[in-house]
Design goal:
mainly beta; 11 strands; globular
Length: about 120
């Protein structure tokens, strides 16, 4: 059974950094696309960064500021967030799906499995 648990959220000042972590269990990262999504109050959930073997995808709003990575040995996925802005405030979710389509497709369409999320607040 796929299980995802996020951690690393919190309160940070504008311009600051955070690293989110997602520990995956019940499957291995091989053959899976992993991604980070976020949902701000009153907005739909959006895919911001996804990763599979040899491919990554970022939504334009986070390009150059966020970096997704994974550690297959630890079965973990990370999101390094730099230069955070108030508009980055949201609940952040880790997602996973068996790889069948392009990495960008999953970021735009969503995943089959989700964690509970972690809250990131960017405020002075």
């Amino acid at each position: 059974q796929v299980h995802l648990v996020e951690s690393g959220g919190g309160l940070v000042q504008p311009g600051g950094s955070l690293r989110l972590s997602c520990v995956a269990s019940g499957f291995t990262l091989d053959y899976y696309v992993m991604g980070w999504f976020r949902q701000a109050p009153g907005k739909e959930r959006e895919g911001i960064a996804c990763i599979s073997d040899g491919d990554t995808y970022y939504v334009d709003s986070v390009k150059g500021r966020f970096t997704i990575s994974r550690d297959k040995a630890k079965n973990m996925v990370y999101l390094q967030m730099n230069d955070l802005r108030p508009e980055d405030t949201a609940h952040y979710y880790c997602g996973a799906s068996r790889y069948r389509y392009s990495t960008s497709w999953y970021c735009m369409q969503g995943m089959d499995n989700w964690g509970e999320g972690t809250l990131v607040t960017v405020s002075s």
